């Protein structure tokens, strides 16, 4: 077990654009059986776009676009950016009583109306009847898009379908990891229907969806209690506790600083091929030391 070979292994990883913090990280990376991936910004590009706006009967599309963008100006969620960008100059200004409901959506008063914008869990929690939107929620979820719902004064007013495509090489990278024998898990706050479609496209084995931001670390703990040795791969601030909880935390370069500081390994190339490279190099390095 020479420190020299560890240094060589870390150097080799760096040639592949993978920054390994220390010997422990390399060592732990040889013991894993389960890899857990955040969805948005990790499996996907993290640049969601509005692909459809469907107002309720008798409601004007442009007005709903303007109100949704007004609310989302106060949020830095990727879905918020998509809605603001989609509205462009149509966005209204002036939101009263703005609130962020983590893992659910946002709320506030716009143009004299009480607005609520987010997922169906949020609208259900606020007793908004979404029966009329259900078929369209199911339709867009089945396309792998995330339905974001707008309610005004307690009534369902519009659905925004927002799509965030997989990174070009995510499916190929996950095929390599599958071939290496790992179980692949998706961990996301998005709804189970949308998450399931994206997971299938990516080649994921198991989906843990609808997880509130504080629940990601608990999900890793659950897998560990089931006897798994886990790497968490993520990019966001809300991934940091899960990155810390896992045997190995792996951050996407270009993600949040908090994720990068917490993780033992950082992927400079923003490609999940880096995960396969890192795990293979770790194993080869430790093999050479025996
Ligand atoms: P993730 O990063 O995996 O999407 P989050 O916990 O950030 O998980 O969000 C979970 C879900 O909550 C989102 O998929 C969305 O439906 C809803 N949501 C959260 N924030 C917003 C927002 N600002 N606007 C609309 N919907 C939101
Ligand atoms: Mg993310």
From TrEMBL:
Q: Which domain of life is it from?
A: Bacteria
The compartments listed are: Cell membrane
Q: Which family does it belong to?
A: Belongs to the cation transport ATPase (P-type) (TC 3.A.3) family. Type IB subfamily.
- Name of the protein: Copper-exporting P-type ATPase
- Origin organism is Acerihabitans arboris
Q: Which gene encodes it?
A: copA
Full protein stretch here: 488 to 777 of 836
